[in-house]
Amino acid sequence: MKHGPAAGLLRGGAGPLWIGAALVCAALVDLRLVPVVAVWAGAWWVNTWLAAQRRTRVTTLAVPLLFGLTLLVLWEMVVRLFGVPAVILPPPSAIGARIGAEVPTLWEDFVQTFLRGALTGYVLGCGAALLTAVAIDRSPFLQRGLLPVGNFIAALPIVGTAPILVMWFGFDWESKAAVVVVMVFFPMLVNTVAGLAATDAMQRDLMKTYAAGYWPTLLKLRLPAAMPFVFNGLKICTTLALIGAIVAEFFGSPTRGMGFRISTEVGRLSLDMVWAEITVAALAGSAFYGAVALAERRVTFWHPSQR
Question: What are the record's GO terms for cellular component (predicted)?
Fold first, then answer.
C-alpha cells in the first residue's frame, strides 16, 4: 500500500519531532497557542493514520468527520483562549445553544426559504430547462438563437434581478422561487443540451436500423446517455437554489425566512443567531446535494464514474 509523505514522516519517526518543534514554536510566540497546536497536531496524526489504513466505509467516513470535529474544537479554543468578542465570532457552543433555543424559529425560516422558495424554484427551473433542452435539440433554430439569450440571462447579477422579481411577484416566497428559477435554468439547460449530444454516430445509426424515430431514440438511447450530464446540472443547481432564495430575501420578504433573519440579526449584532441560520442552511444544502448524488448513483450505476 502506498502512503503519502505525511505517513512516511510518521513511519520514520519524524512525526513526533515535527509536532514537538511546532509546540516549541507556539510556546515562543504565545503560550495560548500551545493547546491549540497540540489539538491540531494530535488530530493531524490520527487523520494521517486513518488515511493510511485500508479503505473501508468506516475510514472513509471517519476522516472527514474527524477533520470537521477538529475545526470546531479549534474554533472553540481560539475564541475562548484569545477572548474574541461574540459580536465578531461566537464560539460553536454558543451557536449550538442558540440552535437548541430557537428550533421553532429556525424551522419556520427553513420551511419559508428552503421548502417553499428554493425547492419550488428548483423543480420549476430544472424541469423547464429539461423541456427546453429537448426543444433546442429538436430545432437547430432554437439551438442557434436561444442558447446565446440564455447565456446573457445567466450573466445578469442576482443583486440586480432579485429586486425586480420581488416587485413583480410580491414579497412572499413566490418571488424567491422566481429568482431561483432564473438562477438554475441556464446551468441545467447547458448540461442537458451537452448530454443529449453525447451519443456517437454509431449508436444513433444502430437505432435507425431498428426503424426507431426521434422520440424512441430520445427515450431509449439519448436521454439515458445524457443522465450523467443531467445529474451534473442538478447537483450544481442544488447550491444555486438555496443561495438564490436566501439572497432574494434580502430585498424584501415577510417576517420570516433565512435571508430575512440573517439581515435582521446582523443589525442587532446577534451573531450567534446569524451563525445558527448559516448552519441550518449549510446542513440543508449538504443534505439536498447528497440526496441528488444518491439518486445519481442509483440511476447512472452503469457509468464509469460510479464504479
Answer: plasma membrane
